[in-house]
Each structure stands twice: as structure tokens, then as C-alpha cells.
Amino acid sequence: MTHTPPFRLPSGGRRIDRAYQLPFRFDGRHLRGLTGDTLASALLANGQMLMGRSFKYHRPRGPVASGAEEPNALLGLGQGGRFEPNQRATTTPLVAGMVTRSQNCWPSLDADVGAVNSFLSPFFPAGFYYKTFIHPRSFWKHLFEPIIRRSAGLGRAPTDADPDRYEQAYGFADTVVVGGGIAGLTAARDAAQAGGQVLVLEQDSLWGGRTPIDHKDGQAAIDALLSDLRGRPNVTLRRNTMATGLYDHGYLIAREALADHDPNQGIPRQRLWRIRAGHVVTATGALERPLAFACSDVPGVMLASAVRDFIAEYGVAPGQRIVVVTNNDDAYRTALAARAAGLDVPAIVDARPVADGDLPRAARDAGITVLTGTGIAKVKGGRHVAGVTLCDQSGEGRVTDSLDCDVVAMSGGWSPVVHLYSHCGGKLTWDKAQAMFRPDPDRPPLGADGKGNVTAVGAASGDLRCAGDLERAEGATQPVWVMPARAPYKLRSKMWLDYQNDVKVTDVELAAREGYASVEHAKRYTTLGMATDQGKLSNINGLAVLSDALNQPIAATGTTTFRPPYTPLTLATIAADAKGEAFQPLRKTPMHAWHEAHGASFEPVGQWRRPYSYPKGAEDRHMAVDREILAVRKGVGTLDASTLGKIVVKGPDAGRFLDMLYTNMMSTLPAGKCRYGLMCNENGFLMDDGVVARLSDDTWLCHTTTGGADRIHGHMEDWLQCEWWDWQVYTANLTEQYAQIAVAGPQARTLLERLGGSIDLSQAALPFMQWAEGDIAGIPARVFRISFSGELSYEIAVPAGRGLELWERLHEIGQDLGITPYGTEAMHVMRAEKGFIMIGDETDGTVIPQDLSLGWAISKKKADYIGKRAQRRLHMVDGKRWRLVGLESVDGQVLPDGAYAVAEGVNPNGQRNVQGRVTSSYHSPTLGRPIAMGLVRHGPERMGQVLDFPMPSGQVMQARIVDPVFYDKEGSRLNG
Amino acid sequence: MADALAAIARVPGLGMITIRADLSRAGDALAEATGLAIPDVAGITTDGSRSLGWMSPDELLLILPEAERADAQDALTQALMGDHGLVVDVSDARAVFDVTGPHAADIIAKLAPVDALALRQGQLRRTRVAQTAAAIWRIPGGFRVIGFRSTADYLGLILTNAALPGSQLAPR
User: Fold this and answer.
1) Interface of B with A (CB under 8 A)
2) Per the CB < 8 Å rule, is B84 touching A170?
3) What are chain B's domains?
């Protein structure tokens, strides 16, 4: 029989407003729906049952369900940056002007070339890809995988940036009820009466769940509960909010749809709620199961509840002649609803031998034929249901009769929605009487107190009656996993379990035969329950079939793991506001705006942005680096060193503490002086370095690397709080309190003296490695005579709020001295010219100070320091370690950073042996040639030897081992 | 276009002093030096001009007009003289924002894992707003948020974003 109009019923449909038509487009066709429609109901109302193609065989697909469990009716929605693939038509509200398209078909939904896979399906059994594409091995990477990847996947990823806003919010409640049906609202009322804040989340825009549809007094009962709850100040009711995941400690994730229907109104489109719940009540209802009969995937075969929903909610007739097939009483409601809407119901096909409860009786009273003990042998029709043939349910499928119809409304029973309950460890139990897995109340998810913190209620707990006063009697469900019970292979191979992934009864049976006894393995092997719907419809039927094939009870097979999210979350919702400028906190020094205004080319250093160099005119950033270095070496330059860590350490035990933290002695440092220090971890490896200044008798200021500021402060507090809790030491991280400017170059003193102030900057008053306090240019300052460039150098720390003022003053009065701002790269090159190490270049977490010839900075007098014991381990002292040397390129080329020096022979893996690597490598503008440092086995003992550095191109670069100090070995420039 | 959910205003001119000491021993001296009661755990005391916040079991933060900072620092140093303690100026290390208006709590709820509605006057929360560290407490008409100076632009941006007109958290 053909699918014939009218598709919209003359009356009914509680969600739709017939006065308001909404135009929309589907695959380019202009269609009209009504306000209140979902995409699915609007398409059905236009006679469009075909909505997609299945993943593997490209078989025609229509909607099966009416809610979030829909596996088939997945559409591409929107255009450009708002394009979204895989949107479920059954839960997407229709919006005027919506542009939608079908997926997984080419050139069109009606004439899909990929459907040829369907005719070849006997050649694509479960595991086909695994078996076929495994040999020869090399073909996988280069041939098979690229082709499979291109043809895989439902829908297409959007290519443009999402133009919409999203946000997150934190919620707190003593009780969170997930699900606003009758069970949830009743639980919310009870919780509210008991006291505490109660939050109720409902995925839909309407309250009540199935109750208003399935019970004549349902809406009144829901309205009464809502009115009670709205009068309670401790209750929050939130609609359009899907709880997608429940985690430990009552942490619940939910997505609130705010402007999905109208993203142009300027508010966030969706909001991700991160909720801390004292107790979670899952009132998430149940999902109806399909029945597995031959050709059960033909468009027009739908869940009985979905057929009922389309009629009652949207006034849409999925078909004119509806055959109901069931193993329970509930589906009779669909037959009655269809009949009441004026549609034909040729028969109710009931697999049970007897059906004589209230609902079957009502159906018979309404004149509907009820065929008990009967099953569907096969669905007729290709792109749409044309009829069914019937058989004895207990037999092998011999056809006893046939019926014309355009819709088959099936019900294989109901499965509680146990996802949230299971996400964080709640256990399920197989309820044989009701043929369902339901939450085991004795094994709930546990809270921090060891007590259950999640309770399932209503249908979600396996209680399929309406709660409260609306209880109703129903006959027992009879488990039917295959229809008919003794169907031969020919029929079983056409019984679809998973519509989205084209998994059939015979695929699961094959997996069992091939040894996939674990339900988790069988899932991966067959793809049952994968992809966007995660088996919401197919899981239970699939594992029942698996159990049967394994000849074991369903409880022994168990379920696959339920993992969040329950329904997919878009990445935009998860990222929320963290995009564009707000992607990450970008830390800025007090002089940041000046750097920007002066053309700085920035580099990220942790979350800071530091000027790499300041290109001028036609310069690129590297040319600028050369210019900056020469300016410092010949005149004077300024570096923004504000990002360096500055930690003050004070107390009677501060000296003792620092002696443990640093490898050298800090307690003996006189007040007013500075000392370079190395910090190692417990394994002896170098983790940070910096200059320590003794501020007073009991106070030290420790400079750390930029990246080390927070980490080293944490390291200090860790030792003070956990190990040496009785030592009297306080620390404070003052990194952000001060702006710090390095003024370096032969003219540094001349420049600073021009600023005036109370500090004597002369060589006699402030020699190298001393500091002084006073004011400079009227700004309170500390001046440290320290140098990372090898030049005469002062680092000046002033309150952060006055850093820019000092920086600008320096540049005003230093023009005639050629004052030049220099960036991090110039700093790096100048320190390498001097052979100074850099944490992160010369160290990588496996390097000890001794490797870097920094033995002079390791105290021999101290009984202990962190890392000392580790540095005495055999491997640290066996003389085979790679040690720091300079590397001089033989042919004048700059060695690539990280290049390896090879040694003779190969290792057990057949790789060339190595004997060293480049740790820093630059072109030195000062020397006019390349310089490099590296770690080389026995390096310092091999001066003058030439090492080979093979390049990926096959070329071999060579470098000679030299002293790592390339410039001013005597250190005479330090004093200007 | 509707109004922003709350007014976001950077607060200049505040001095801040970090105090570390054994509060059980030095508490009285510190209370006298600051003119404020020592706050309870996770609390903050105020006289309207100065505030004293509990930062950790041995750390307090004094917030006061910048003009009074130097004298207060001297007084605190004096108060701890002879005791093991640390008094340092952190005024320049911080960025301070006031979030005020009828929906101010919504801004906090969007950015900080804090039950903003339940946060009472006199409580101080050290937490984060979005991806940066912050402390939050109630002030008349809203909340005060302090973070680090280097992330002031980020703080201002995310607070303003969270105040997007029409985005209040109340169910609709």
C-alpha cells in the first residue's frame, strides 16, 4: 500500500499551533510546518518519511522514535558557521526558515549510490573490515585507512567558526531531580517538603513526560504538582535542560538550550551547567524497545509510543493503516489512539499467547482485531512499508496471513533509562519478570560518606506504572528477542538490531561464534550500540541475542558500560566562553601596552606574552634580534624582566631552608649581596635557577625563571608545610608586585645616573652581585647588579604600577645613547654567547648540575640539600654522562637545535648510536658566526674533536667541540 | 537591548598587605594594628573602609585605601616585632573589580565554582574565575573580585561577557 495524505490530522496535537505556519527547507525543497512541530513531525506532516540513510549499507531510513533515542532521522542543520551535523529531527524544534539536509547519501537521499552496499551486504558481515584490510600490513596505513576514513562517519563536520555565544554556570542544590515527569515532580515535591534546595531538570520544553499522553488524568496530575512546586521558594524548575552526565561526588553536567531556536537574539545559545548535587534523583523514564523481525528497518516501522506521540503531540498521521505489533499491553494505547484519530488499525499482532487485560479488552471493544500468539514474518516494501506477512510467533516463520499497511507500530517492552545512574558506578540488576535491566537500589553510586547519593524513581527504576494516584493495571510483558522465535537464518539476517550501524541478529550471532563472548568485545566487533545514539534502542535486544547465542542467561552477559554524555554535547558548549580573546588568560606585564605600541613580535612564555624582538621597518623578527644584540653590546638596551619569579623568604629558619633548596650556600650570603643559585628536585635533576639576594638578616629574595614562579613557590610551600612544618619560615610570591627592567650594555650606568636618585650606582658603591635600595627617578626601587648578557647590567625592580613610567623615562633620556628595547631572543643569544645555561634548553628534567660543569655552584660543605643524595647514585657519577660543551660549526652553518651527534654502531633496535645533542644553537651577531652548546659524552675531555650530526636530508653537518664560553671569557665587560 | 546583568567596574586606589603570622599568638596585636577583628576561617571583617580577609591558617590580607598603606605596613611590622612574621605590600600585584547590580550573583555563578547565592556577607572565597585565580566576597550591592594584575584584561573581559544582557540564570 502506498503512503497517502492527509498526513496532518484535522484535529489534535497538543504542542502545535495551527494558526502559525513555519516555512523551512529540506534538501532544497520548500516545505511548511507548524509552530510547535519538531523537524520530524514537520517532515512527516509533509509526507516525508524517508529522512536518512544508514551508515554501512546506506539503506533508506525513516524515524523510529519520537525523542532523544532516535537513531535514524539525523539531519544536517543550518549553514556556514551554524551548520551542525547529526541533529536528531525528533528533538529539534522547527524554526522558521530552517535549512536542513539529509546525510550519508550521494548524489541524493532518493537516489543514493552507496545503497549498492546493501545488495552486497552478505559480503560485509561483522568484522569485515578487520578481516579484510589486515593484509598486507603496509596497505593499511597507505591504502585502506585513507579510503575507509574518507567514506566513514555520519554527517560532515562544519568548517566555519561557530558564530554563537555559549556559556557555563555552576549550580548547587541539596537535591537535583532529573526528569520532570510524574515520578520526578512527585519526588521533587517530597524532597522540597523535607527541606533544602531542590532543582528539577527537564529535557523537554513541556513538563510531564509521557503521563499527559498516556493517561486521561495525566495532565491534571502534572498541573497540580507543578502548581505546588511553583509555590515553593526552595524549588527551581528548569526546562529545556538535558542532564548528560553524572560524575563522582554528585557532580552533574547538564545542557540548557537557551536560544537554539533563535540564535540571533543575542543571548547565549546554550549553557552548560556544572552542578554539585547533594543527592540526585533520576526520574529519567524509560525507552521503548523495538522488536527484531525481518526487514524491521523499512521506513514506516516505528516504535508504538512514537506513533502515538506523533498523533497526540503533533496531530500528524505517520500512516493511514497502522499495524501494531507487541509483546505487552502498553502498545494497545497506540492502537486506540490511532483509531480515535480516525486511522485504520487492521490488527494488533500480539506475540503473547493470551492478552486479556484492560487495554486488550478496550481494543477488542473498539472493534480492533487482536491476533495473539502471532508475530510478523516479514515487512513488505522497500523505501516504505507496504504491508506485513504474519506467522506463528513460536514457529519458524511460515506465513499464515498478510496485511496491507503503511506503518508498523512495534513495542518490544520498555527499558528504564539507567544511564545517569550507571555513569558513576551504580549497578544494575536483571529483572526477569519485567525483562529489563533496572537500577539495583542496594548498589547505588556512593557519595563521600559511603552512602548512596543517587536514587532512581518511577519508570527509571523499573516501575512502569504511573506514579501516585494514576496507577494502572497492565498485563505482563513477554520477552521477545527474535520474531518468530525459531526464525531461520534467512529471516534472522534481515532482522535489524541497530538501525544506525546496520547490525543484524546474524552479525551478533557471528560475533558469538567467533569467540566474542564479552558484551564489550561484541560491541566493538559488530559496532552494535556505537555512534550518536550509543545503542539506546539496540543494546538490550543485542545483548539478549548475544546471550542466546552464548547459551547463557542475560544477567550473565550484562550490559556495555554506560558513559557520558547521554546525548551528544557540542564542543562549542563545552568550550563556552573560552574562545577568541577569552580562550586563555593572557598575562601582561606593566609594560605590555608599550611593547605592543612599539611593534613587538611576541612569544608565549607560559601564559605570558613576552616580546621576542621589536622589528622595525622592513626587518623581520630575526633581523631585529641581531640589531638588538649589537645595540646592547655597543651601547645600552632594556629588557622587560617583570615575568621573572620573585619570592620573598623570611624567618629564623630561612637561611637553613634555602640551604636545603639550593645546591649552594645561601645562609652565608651577606645582606646586600646576590648569589646565583641552582635548585634540584629530589632526583637530583636541575629544575630551576636564579639569583638570590639577601635583603636583611632574616629575609631573602629568590628570583626564579618565568615559568618557575608559581611552581617554585609551590615547591617551597610543599616542603614547609609537609616536611619541615616546624621550621619558622614564611614565603610570599611577589612576582606581580614588581616590574623589573634589565638595563644592559656599556652605557647602562651612564643612562641610569641621568635618572637621578638616592642610589650610588658607581662600581665602588654597587659592584657586581650586589644590590641597593632607594629611589630612581623618584620611584622606589631595588637595583640588582646582575648580568645575564655578560655586559654591565642593572636589574631595577619598582612597584608594578610604576614600571611603565620608569621604562618610558629610560627611553626618553637614553636616545642619544642608542637605547634599544631588546626581547627574549636577544637575551637568549647573548647568554649563549657567554655560555650561560638556560633552564629548558640545557636542561630537560634529566640533567644534573654536574653535567653542566656547574660544580662550582654546588656546596661541598653542606651536609645535605634536596637532590644531593640522588646526585651520588652510580649512574650520576659513572663518568659516562653527557656534559656541556660549546659546538663550533665546521662549515659555518647554524646547527639545528636538538640535532644528535652519532657514534659508531647501532643499538639493539637497529638505530644509530648517539653520543650527544645540540641544546642551544644560534647565529651570533656579536661574533658573526654560528654558536651552539650541547651535551656530549665525555664532552669537556674531548676539546677539538669533530662530531657528525646527520640531517634528515642525508647531509651530515659537522661541529668541533670547544669551550662553551664564546665571548669575553675574562668577564671584563661586566664592569663596563 | 536590555541592560547588562551587572555593572563591572575596576576599583583603583586600594592598598593591600599580605600578613603571615601565627594568628593564635599574634592575633590580638594584628587586630589592634589593623583596627579590625581577626576574621574566622574563610571570613572577612570590615569597618567599611578597611577589610581584613582570611587567606590561609597563617595568612591574612589587609585591604585599605592606598594612602593608608605605608603607615599600616609599619604598624603591622611593629606589631609583629619579636615574633616570626611577614608583612609585605602586594597592592601592585592585584586587580580589583566590583560586580554590582540585581543579577551580580549570576556573574559569579557563571565563572566561579562557588554557590554565589549562599555566600554570606563576611565570607571570603579563594577560588578561580574561569581560568584565573581570584578571591570573592560580598560588598553592598554585589561582590568584589580580586585577581592578579597580569590577568586584569582577561578578568575584565570574562566578567563583562558573563554580564551579557538577557543571559540571567533564572529559569525562563
Assistant:
1) 1, 18, 20-21, 58, 84-86, 88-94, 106, 109-110, 112-115, 117-118, 130-132, 148-154, 157-158, 161-162, 164-167, 169, 171-172
2) no
3) 7-11+93-162 (3.30.1360.120), 14-92 (3.30.70.1520)
Å from A587 to nearest chain B CA? Answer: 5
* Contact assignment for A167 to B85 by CB distance below 8 Å: no
Asked if B148 and A587 come within 8 Å (Cβ–Cβ), the reply is yes
**Of residues B18, B150, B157, nearest to A732 (C-beta):** B18
Task: For residues A42 and A23, give the distance between their C-alpha atoms in angstroms, rounded to a whole number.
Answer: 10
Condensed to tens digits (0 to 9), the pLDDT of residues A852-909 reads 999 999 999 899 999 999 999 999 999 899 999 999 999 999 999 999 999 999 999 9
Distance from CA of B97 to the nearest CA of A (A): 16
Is 90 exceeded by the pLDDT of residue A437?
Answer: yes
Note whether A237 contacts B150, CB cutoff 8 Å. Answer: no
- Cell numbers found for residue A68: 532523544
Q: Which residues of A touch B167 (CB under 8 A)?
A: 167, 258, 267-268
Rg (C-alpha) for chain A, rounded Å, is 37
CB contact under 8 A, A584 and B84: no
Give the integer Cα–Cα distance in Å for A814 and A798. Answer: 19
Chain centroid to CA A471: 43
Q: pLDDT in tens for each of the 172 residues of chain B?
A: 479 999 999 999 999 999 999 999 999 999 999 999 999 999 999 999 999 999 999 999 999 999 999 999 999 999 999 999 999 999 999 999 999 999 999 999 999 999 999 999 999 999 999 999 999 999 999 999 999 999 999 999 999 999 999 999 999 8
Cβ–Cβ under 8 Å, residues A806 and A757: no
Q: Is A61 helix (H, G, I), strand (E, B) or coil?
A: strand
Residue A119's pLDDT band (boundaries 50, 70, 90)? Answer: low
Run of H or E residues at A88: strand A84-88
Q: Does A434 score more than 80 pLDDT?
A: yes
Minimal Cβ distance to A582: which of B118, B158, B165: B158
Of A587, A589, A650, the CB nearest to B86: A650
Does B88 sit within 8 Å of A587, measured CB to CB?
no
* Complete domains list, chain A, with CATH: 120-151 (no CATH), 166-287+416-470 (3.50.50.60), 476-557 (1.10.10.1100), 592-643+737-831 (3.30.1360.120), 645-736 (3.30.70.1400), 879-974 (2.40.30.110)
Question: Which string of DSSP letters, residue by residue, matches B82-148?
Answer: TS-EEEEE-GGGEEEEEEESTTHHHHHHHHSSS-GGGPPTTBEEEEEETTEEEEEEEETTEEEEEEE
pTM of the model: 0.93
Name residue, grid cell 637575551: A827
Q: How far is CA A929 from CA A622, A838, A966, in A?
A: 15, 21, 11
Q: Does the predicted interface ipTM exceed a cut of 0.90?
A: yes
